[in-house]
User: Which sequence fits this backbone?
């Protein structure tokens, strides 16, 4: 069964966009009630590359995003910038909890449901800092300009995990005490859905 329950996306910006960088040397110009600056700042972010699993690690932009990835985790590319991360289960069930791999040495931000109608953020540095019912997980990774993690001045790039619906299942992310990222999928029913995923 392949369940596309989580998207990893390396954020990027269009090269044609320019952003204003406010500083004292730029000077401020008021034009029709709008603030304007004399200089424009062009952003600089690393290019997204295809993600893949190699030697038990999910790699994105040359950086290991997840370590100790289990054999039942599968990757399905969606585009050059994103992919679906799923897992295979040998048994039918109305609820599965899959381990995706170990998360450590990242700054992370998670948005999680602590009440059925309310979400709050939490920050951390490892998989054990990811609460249950996480609906969005953002990891900050650093690499230098040529894509290697050993950098004199590393550039940040971001990895976004979004749990998505898959057929009759809803999904969420969670961490455990072993710093593993897990995703939980459930139908909310007692009976298993045999038709929903076995190939």
Assistant:
């Amino acid at each position: 069964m392949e369940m596309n329950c989580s998207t990893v996306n390396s954020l990027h910006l269009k090269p044609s966009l320019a952003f204003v960088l406010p500083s004292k040397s730029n000077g401020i110009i008021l034009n029709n009630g709008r603030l304007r600056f004399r200089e424009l700042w062009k952003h600089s972010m690393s290019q997204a590359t295809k993600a893949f699993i190699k030697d038990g690690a999910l790699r994105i932009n040359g950086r290991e995003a997840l370590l100790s990835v289990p054999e039942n985790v599968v990757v399905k590319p969606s585009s050059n910038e994103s992919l679906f991360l799923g897992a295979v289960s040998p048994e039918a069930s109305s609820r599965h909890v899959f381990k995706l791999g170990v998360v450590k040495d990242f700054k992370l931000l998670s948005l999680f449901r602590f009440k059925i109608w309310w979400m709050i953020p939490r920050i951390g540095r490892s998989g054990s800092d990811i609460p249950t019912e996480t609906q969005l997980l953002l990891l900050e990774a650093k690499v230098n300009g040529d894509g290697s993690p050993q950098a004199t001045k590393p550039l940040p790039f971001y990895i976004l995990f979004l749990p998505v619906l898959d057929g009759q299942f809803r999904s969420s992310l969670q961490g455990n005490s072993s710093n593993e990222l897990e995703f939980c999928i459930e139908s909310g029913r007692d009976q298993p859905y045999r038709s929903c995923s076995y190939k």
Remarks:
- The mean pLDDT is 76.
- The radius of gyration is 20 Å.
